[in-house]
Amino acid sequence: MKITVRFFASYADELGRSTVELPLAEGGTVSDLMCCIAALPGAASLPPNPLVAVNQVYAPLTSILASGDEVAVIPPVAGG
Amino acid sequence: MRAALVRHSIDVSALLREAASPAHGATAIFVGTVRDVSEGRAVTGIDYSAYESMAEREITAIAAEAIDRYGCPAVLVEHRVGHLDIGDVSIAIVAAHERRAPAMDAMRYVIEEIKCRVPIWKQEQYADGTREWVNPTRGHAA
Questions:
Q1: In sequence order, what are the residues at sequence separation of 6 or more whose Cβ sits closer than 8 angstroms to the Cβ of residue A53?
Q2: CB–CB contact A80 B134 (8 Å)
Q3: Beta-strand pair B2-6/B74-80
Q4: Which among B33, B107, B133, B135 is the top mutation candidate for probing chain A, defined by the most A β-carbons within 10 Å of its own β-carbon?
Q5: Domains observed in chain B
Q6: H/E/C letters for each residue in chain B?
Q7: What is the pTM (predicted TM-score) of this model?
Q8: What does the longest C-alpha to C-alpha distance in chain B come to?
């Protein structure tokens, strides 16, 4: 299945892109997806367990993903 | 209740008018502005960006939580995105209640939760021409 991954702010700068579509085996989790992300160029500067949102809701590494999910890798927030 | 990301200047007086009601005895306002120094460095402006759909959803949820927790009949939040100059308003929160304590508690709750959980980022621009993403987890808090 395909998962759309979005990067923002400093993470988008470090990876040189704001979105990527990654293949993931059926039943794959956020943690599995993070392993795929870690192989992308520029990903070495990401922390090992960044905040992640699935379909705009914060999600743990154990969340099981479904085809078409949008996963956002979220840098430390700084609103206000 | 209303919570939104905006690209235009925030009009605090308009928010106060929007929240006004004869039933309110207290209205608490928080206004965040861009300051000219950060961690000892001269700042010339800030670019705010967001995961906009999620940020609006989170800010709306936070405003609803404040209403539930403190019983405020009116909570309004506007957070700006885009380029801001020194002194520009980046966020305004208005919380109104019959009494002052719930109004102030609700206002405080909203700003503290926004700082913890809403996917908004700011990149500071410095007088020396450099720029940097603000990372509060490195002790570089707003």
A1: A59, A71, A72, A74, B51, B54, B119
A2: no
A3: parallel
A4: B133
A5: 2-131 (3.90.1170.40)
A6: CEEEEECCCCCHHHHHHHHCCCCCCEEEEEEEECCCEECCEEEEEEEEEECHHHHHHHHHHHHHHHHHHHCCCEEEEEEECEEEECCCEEEEEEEEECCHHHHHHHHHHHHHHHHHHCCEEEEEEECCCCEEECCHHHCCCC
A7: 0.94
A8: 51
Alpha carbons B62 and A59: distance in angstroms, whole number:
18
Domains and CATH numbers, chain A: 2-74 (3.10.20.30)
Q: What would the pLDDT profile of B62-118 be if each residue is shown by its tens digit? A: 999 999 999 999 999 999 999 999 999 999 999 999 999 999 999 999 999 999 999
Q: Tell me which amino acid residue A65 is.
A: L
Give CA separation, B109 vs A77, B69, B86, B102, B120, in Å.
17, 9, 26, 10, 17
- A13, A74, A78: residue with CB nearest B142: A78
* Residue B141 pLDDT > 50: no
Looking at residues B24-52, what average pLDDT do you find? 97
| Cα B45 to chain centroid, rounded | 17
Cα separation, B99 vs B97, in Å, equals 5
Give pLDDT, residue B140. Answer: 46
In chain A, the largest separation of any two C-alpha atoms, in whole Å, equals: 39
Interchain CB distance below 8 Å, A8 and B49: yes
